Amino acid sequence: MGIKGQEAAEAPDLLDVTAVARKLCVGTRTVLRLRDSGALPRPFKIGRLVRWRRVDIDHWIAADCRPVETR
Packing angle between helix 17-24 and helix 54-62, nearest 10 degrees? Predict the structure, then answer.
């Protein structure tokens, strides 16, 4: 298995704000601003934790990062 396959096998299905920021090559503050503006897919909460599903972020990136919600 190559490195990319190994990363995919070890990658968690749920991403925190830091993991989303790394994936988008932006700061965590930018992720929070994108979330607050409705641009990112809606995260969900597990207690006090905020998480995004990896597949939702991947689909959002594949769709050219279009805003998800309109306000």
Answer: 30
